[in-house]
Design goal:
homodimer; 309 residues; alpha/beta
């Protein structure tokens, strides 16, 4: 059986690049046709449906262009049970478009609870449409190995994977992630390598990846060295300040420049219509152009790194 | 306006003790009348409803006995959108029983995402019944201050509160929480104190509490000293090995022995019917007896500590 890393490798090889589209439907930023989503007088059901309709269009933009999407569950939970219904529908629709789905859920809890999350979000509860369940998840490591174990058991028996927060892209991430000497992130990285040691594919990478902020370019080579077998998930491209030229250390395979990680952009694509140069353009056209531009930038940065290797 | 700490103080003073009932509906442990919850041939809706029915009975046991309950959201997410519907119903029903609700959700994410969680789970989205929204939440600090800020803003304007993971009760908690010298938990504790510094009530405690495993009794005095203004949430009583006699350092007020924290038991109460001494007893009677026993043990341990002060 092929595991997550090989499945991801095949999917990114097929499109020729490691770009990932984040689905973060911030209500305040949604284009006018979906304004009902932020209207407090509308019913919760209608508002959640508007978020779903927007995501459906974004999935249409993503289809065939990228290997995977990363929906952020908080923007669905905002609408409670109605939001969860739409979440499941969006995951299902992404699969219909042949997209892998990495659920940005950042769960982390003691083992018996973690087992429930692992079933709900990664393995699939009987009665839940298997197509409505994610292929990968982001997880929080604060509680240690036993909080990860139930997810690793799912990865073992399937071609699913997880991405553990190691060094995040937000401004205050250093408060705890740099605590100690060596810094905390190194201890998390060592655990990630250990957790993935039995879950490696033919690509050399494991089913246990790491979330590593692309806003810390100086650290990326260090992070990659500490995580030689972890597929990386690099958020923060575009809106959060990450740049294509800084990505090379995460992708150390000159002959397979897509291999080693996923580069995420969310707001920079979905809400490109708000940028001055897209003034007046239909939002979906703007999103399509922004995604094509990101793919081109990332491709070119990674093949430039190939030339300099 | 009175904040979370004062509201909690009044509610625990009214019952005279700081016991908290956790609602962790583990499917495998549910009594026979709710066995449909674990039947993979039943519909997801039916299964979720059985979990809800069980929680309703537990809330009946809790009502008038304890100040607050702590439902664990993972066991509801297990049933996707159906589970979230039941989650909202359970929170609403707890409020009908005059119980405070601390949602055990352990969320933690970058600020724009954290804002969505804070609205969804603590403040309430327009369109969501305010009674179906929690009074307090557990949160994960791994991403630092900006991941907490949106929740603190809700606490500022309301009488709601949060409990940040500082030192958890699971076996592998030491892997990261003891990283560095001083250990990571001390850095988290310092942040908790800072986050709560503007949110203190007349009791001296703030709206920013700390989750502190009662399975580390030797550390409890140290934790309390590092967190002088944080209401503590002590899981792990009973099933996870915590003992009443070890609790005293968390409750340093001889004249108000309920003040300073909440002591949680989940499985030890809900599934007391599985213990040998309750063989053959109806599960709800067993749960009632177990809760009364816990309350008595905790009361007596805290007043003994009062005598020795």
């Amino acid at each position: 059986m092929t595991g997550w890393a090989d499945r991801l490798d095949a999917a990114t090889a097929a499109v020729g690049h490691p770009c990932l589209l984040g689905l973060d439907p911030h209500l305040d930023l949604l284009p006018e046709p979906y304004a009902v989503a932020r209207d407090p007088r509308a019913s919760r059901e209608e508002r959640a449906d508007a978020v779903g309709a927007f995501c459906h269009e974004l999935l249409d933009v993503a289809a065939g262009r990228v290997a995977a999407v990363k929906p952020q569950i908080a923007f669905f939970e905002l609408f409670g049970a109605d939001g969860w219904r739409v979440w499941e529908d969006v995951v299902r629709t992404a699969h219909e478009h042949d997209l892998l789905v990495i659920g940005d859920v950042k769960r982390g809890d003691i083992s018996s609870t973690a087992a429930a999350y692992a079933t709900a979000l990664l393995e699939g509860t009987p009665g839940t449409d298997p197509a409505a369940v994610c292929d990968g998840l982001t997880l929080n490591p604060f509680l240690g190995s036993d909080s990860l174990a139930p997810f690793l058991r799912v990865c073992e028996g399937t071609d699913k994977g997880v991405y553990v927060l190691v060094r995040t892209s937000n401004p205050s991430s250093s408060e705890l992630q740099l605590h100690g000497d060596p810094p905390l992130w190194r201890a998390v990285a060592a655990l990630v390598e250990r957790w993935g040691s039995e879950l490696r594919g033919t690509s050399g990478y494991s089913a246990v990846g790491a979330v590593v902020g692309a806003t810390h370019p100086g650290e990326l080579a260090e992070l990659r060295a500490a995580l030689p077998h972890a597929p990386l998930l690099l958020p923060g491209y575009g809106a959060q300040g990450g740049k294509a030229g800084d990505l090379a250390p995460a992708f150390p395979h000159p002959d397979a420049p897509w291999r080693g990680g996923l580069v995420n952009s969310s707001r920079g694509i979905a809400f490109a219509y708000r940028s001055p140069e897209e003034a007046g353009a239909p939002w979906k056209d703007a999103a399509r152009r922004a995604l094509d531009r990101m793919i081109e930038e990332v491709r070119s940065a990674l093949s430039a790194s190939k030339r300099s290797t």
